[in-house]
Every structure is written in structure tokens, then in C-alpha cells.
Amino acid sequence: MANSNSRPEDSSVRHAPASTLAEMAEKSQLDFELDFYAAVLSAQPNFIDVLRAHATNLTLKGRYEDGMTIDQRLILLRPSDYLAHYNLACSYALLRQPDLALKTLRRAIELGYRDFRYMKQDRDLESIRRDPRFKQLLREFENR
């Protein structure tokens, strides 16, 4: 007798092969998300929220240049988005490109980024934090 809580097997439902499930179980959450977001972006290349999440995950994985490429793409799609500029500044800082990092950070602030407390402790900006231009930038905008 069938359990009243069970549903009849739908022949249209496809089940993943056991090998695929085993491979998925072996992946870290980060690796799973990287693959997932890459697949979404192959179908919807300008999906802003997925681009943001994917860039963040690439950076977390240490793939700074790949993250920077997506950050640059976000700037093209959303040129007035202060968060996109801030994230691109972080990518430049991680890649030890202080001139571009500071220029892009300035643009983020000009567009409205105002979390100065976070900026002072963001590990992604570590390479430019002692730069006098960084300190000047903070002084210039914190007092506004």
C-alpha cells in the first residue's frame, strides 16, 4: 500500500546521475556558486545581481583579475553605480594598481559611497591604506 504522503513518480522528472550528485557533494559552497553563477551568466550575461555575486566570489577565491573584469563590466552597465565603482577600486587595490584604485575610489565617493568606517578597515584596500592620497581622500570627503 502506498504511503499517503508519497507522490506518484512523475516520469517527466529527470534525476541527476549519481556521479553528478557525488561531484556536487565534493565541491565547496564557493566552487558550487562559481559554477552556478557562470552558468546563469552564460544565459543572461547582463544579470546585474549575479554579476555582483560572481565578482565577489571570484575575489574570495583569489581570482582577482577575473573579478576585476566583471567589476569593469558592471561599470559599463551601470556607470553611476557607486558600489560598482567601489568594488572595482577594491579589485585594483588587490592587484596592486594604486593609481587606478584611488582614482576609482574617488569616483565611488563622488557618486555617493559614504561608508568611510568600512573603507578604513576593508582588507581589500590594504595596499592603498597607507598611501597619503588615500588619507587625503578620506579627509576631503569625511568632512562634507
Task: Describe the structure using short key phrases.
disordered N terminus, single chain, 144 residues, mainly alpha
Give structural notes.
The chain has a single domain, classed as Tetratricopeptide repeat domain (Serine Threonine Protein Phosphatase 5, Tetratricopeptide repeat, Alpha Horseshoe), CATH 1.25.40. Helices cover 66% and strands 0% of the residues. The protein is built from 8 helices and no strands. The chain has helices at 18-26, 29-43, 48-60, 64-77, 82-94, 98-111, 116-121, 132-142. The chain is elongated. Residues 1-13 have low confidence and may be disordered.
Topology of helices and strands:
Elements: H1 18-26, H2 29-43, H3 48-60, H4 64-77, H5 82-94, H6 98-111, H7 116-121, H8 132-142
Radius of gyration: 21 Å
CATH architectural designation: Alpha Horseshoe
Q: Count of helical segments?
A: 8
Beta-strand content bin = under 5%
- The end-to-end distance, rounded to whole angstroms, is 74 Å
CATH T-level fold name: Serine Threonine Protein Phosphatase 5, Tetratricopeptide repeat
Largest sheet: none
Sketch the topology as an H/E string, one letter per element: HHHHHHHH
Task: Give the count of structural domains.
Answer: 1
Average pLDDT confidence is 88
Approximate helicity band = 55-70%
CATH class: Mainly Alpha
Number of strands: 0
Instruction: List low-confidence stretches.
Output: 1-13
